Amino acid sequence: MRLTTLEIKGFKSFGDKVTIHFDKGVTAVVGPNGSGKSNVVDAIRWVLGEQKTRMLRSEKMENIIFNGTKNRKPANLAEVHLTFENNKGILPTEYTTVCISRRLYRTGESEYLLNGVTCRRKGITDLFLDTGIGSDSYAIIELKMVDEILNDKNNTIKYLLEEAAGISKYKIRKKQTLHKLEETDADLTRVNDLLFEIEKSLKQLESQAKKTQKFYRLKDEYKEVSLAYSLYAVREFSQSMTDLKQKELSVSDEKLQYHVDLDVIEANIQRLKTESLEKEKSLSAIQKELNEIILLITKGENESKNLKEKINFLHDKQKQLRHQNETDENTITELNDNISQLSVEKTGEEETLKNFELQLAEMKHNVEENKHLYEESVNELKNLNQQLHEVRQEINRYETQAAVRQARSNSINEELRRLNEQIAGNDEKLSVLDKEIAIAQPEKSRLEKESQEAKKSREGIEANLKDIETKLRTLNQQLAEEKRKSDVKTNEYELTRDLIERMEGFPESIKYLKRPESKFKQAPLVSEVISCEDEYKNAIENYLEPFLNHFIVQNTEEAWEALQVLNNSSKGRAHFFVLDSLKAVNEPSSVSIPGCKHALSLTDFDGAYRKLFDHLLGNVYILDDSEDLNKIDTSALSGGYIILSRNGRFLRQRYSLSGGSLGMGDGKRIGKQKNLQKLSDQIKEHQAEVEILQSQINLTEKELNELRTALSEAGKNISRLDNEFAKTSGQINTLNNNREFLVSGIQYTRTTVNQLNEELITLANPEEHHENVNGFSIDRQKTELQNLLEQQKIKQDLSNDLQKHVSDMTNAFNQKNIQFFQQQNKLQNISRDISFKTNQVNNLTRSREEHLLELEGITTQLHTLNEQSKLTDEQFSGLTQKKAEVEQVVRVQEDDYYKSKGEIDKEEKLISDKRKQKEHSDSIIREIHNQINELRLRMTSLKERLSIEFNIELDEIMEQEPNPELDPEELKNRSEKLKKQLSDFGPINPMALESFKEIKERHDFIVKEQQDLISAKESLLKTIAEIDNSAQEKFMDAYHAVRGNFIHVFRSLFSEEDNCDLILTDLSNPLESDVQIIAQPKGKKPLSIHQLSGGEKTLTATALLFGIYLLKPSPFCIFDEVDAPLDDTNIDKFNKIIKKFSADSQFIIITHNKKTMAATDIMYGITMAEIGITQVVPVDMREFA
Known about the structure:
By secondary structure, this protein is an alpha/beta fold.
């Protein structure tokens, strides 16, 4: 396994891509200070996974990306590729070539790659685990690490020994096992805590279970005694029930006689009422007939009006549909013509596109063939140059005559002149290409910028479009909500108005007086003239409830007249407040009662009724919520003041308190007219809000349509810019390809010039040459050289021609490719136009068919409506005549009906006396019923008690016979005693028995889990001990081997008499022991390793490192200026031992020392020809050996 290549781009000072090839042996990296030598080491350390910026000599990770120079822009990413040859299978992978890569983008994103496949950092570190390679392993040694090794800073020596021993995987495994052990200990702790809690609960549940068992025993005994006593109680109840029913039968016979007398009188009344009812029915029927005729006349007028309006509407719609059909037909014809033209155009464009495809395929094939020929030509030219080089070397080595050297020099000068002219010409071409690229590049950037701006603009339009759509949805939701609220209020308004008009819930007498034809319909009720806030409605209405249905009239005559109407019509009773009679009412004196408000101040009514409400509410006060009615002191109140609770449920006077629950309708009887007006105002508000929202929706929809149009225009603009950008990019790619071909030719020509210049230098410093040595012929070599030169010229011209030809063909291919994509876009646009117009034709056709069907329906409706209009006019004249006849009949029947009502009143007075006698009998029967009900209540109570306490029905024990040996009184006492014991027993847990069983099972399960965790912990501890034993064994083997190697290498660097050692400070625990270095070179006996000189420290650290290498050689090792403290003598020792070990490992040395440079096989010079840009110049030192 060896390191083959290192590729760096955009890392620190490496602005350009640099590739360093590593061969076997020793490679030196040299250069002046600040040129970027150590950046090579940083790049290797970074690609191996280094995360610490301190180790990379940087403040933060993003600083390692090339930051640009005065003439160069900063790079967007840093990337390093490190390639290994894994022919010995040291790395655990099937690949023989392994390439690891790392990239860091300026955005902060980072990625690792293994053979081009993205992976994690852990995958890289695991791959090199125990190989000696890593960002912090002994494969990379810097000068500062010499002190760290000798000082054992951060246990450096120990870490290097562990790496060499290969126990890293054991440490990782031990760490994982310790983590599992911690988790197991945590689980065991939780289980122990859980067991403690469960055992505590288990003891409590056991006690509760025993108490529950005792309770159930007492309960069973109580059940037995209670059932026995219930048998005696049921017998007693049955006997009492029989006696009461006998008494009831006796009184019922007396009552029956009263019923007979009443039936005779009632029969007569019934006959009279039947006759009156028949008259009423007859009157109602004729009135109904009259109402129906009036309704039909009104309905006919409305229908006639509606028919005319509908006929006019249908005529207008018929005209609109006919005009629309004509317009649609013209549009369809025009669209079909356009589709035909587009189809013909599409066929032609498709043929053109096929021709472009064929031409592109042919041109691509020709370009690839000519590229292949050009590459073959370049390879042949390289081989020919190699032959020229070899022949020239032979001639230079053996040519002795100056004339031959001079001729060769002249030939080379001529060749150089020609090549320089060629380079100058190519430079001019390159300059022209660069200018063209410089002109095209801003245009490309402009188009790209405009495209991005257009896309951002489109994104902004899309965002606005989404916002407007969201706003429109919100407005539509608000509109729907407002319409719903308006509908709710409208329904409530209609319902309230209907209830008021129909007087729902009012007595028959009030409804009768409030009829539309009644003269008393304008007389208000108390409930209609008073209103108050909702929070006081319950209290006011509950108090005024007896007076809410009282009429309010101005004088007594109006009240008497209304009462006479009710009396004559037998419609019940009514009550009246007479305003004239209330004039004498004094204005109430207001007193201050803490926590209360005067009821008059909380109500609203017309000033005309002031005296009335002074009379009704003058002494009434309402309590605030914060006060308790029971806490009010009324002892000091006089004058009959009344205090109401705010909810109306309670009433407090000086000597009394009343109250209770309220009905479902409380708080809804007063202020109906005012509520109706309030609902009307609310409906108007909602309708106004609906209009506002509808206006906003219209504006929003207009804005939405404008945005959609703008979005469509933006899409077209982006499409145009993308096409122009693609065209410009294609032109730039063509120019760049030509430039690459030209640059390649220039580089090759300059390489040839360099070779010729090197040859001229050789000729200018001639050494001894001999002709015809070992059969060497100078003439033959010259002839061969001349032939080769001629071939070189021919091949060079051929290569230039092929290069130009390939460039021209590439330009033509790119132009044709641009035309192909433009043709493809044009064809897609035509297809979209055809599809769009076809859809328009289909939609218009469907619309036209629908219009034709609608026209047929309208014609049919017009015919039907005209016929209906004729019939309606004929019926209207007949109904008017019939109405007059029916009205005469109604007047006659009304007089007869009111006469029969007077006879019924006389009979009803006779029946009153008989009813009083019957009511006396009813009172006796009611008393008997009350006693029977009391017995039944006691029976029901007994039945419910048996059902609730014992889940036993009464019928079940009725079939049993009581035990005559048992005393009922004793059973009763025993039952009460047992019931008291159960009551005093205290709370029990009915689920205790079941819970005790469940908790016991859970306790047993957790105990088993505890045992399993203890076993698992023991197993983990055993595993840790095995890991420690294996690691310790490997570590001690490695320690003894490294110690021996260290002593051997140390003495080879110094002398055989010098002493050194590697000592473990704690042999009893070697894995945790520190490692101490002892070094005594040249007979010295320093008290401390720190007393050694810098060179001696470096050699000692080197000896230790190579001692580790002998145990487990790393595939490569990097020394970063480690030789700086060494003098010439020690440098030779250092170079000698590196040369010795280079047979098994690669060595990469960063140095300033000339002796170290001379001892290397390959040398890379690090320079900064351009300020801030590191460049690499390779030199193979083996050619100068």
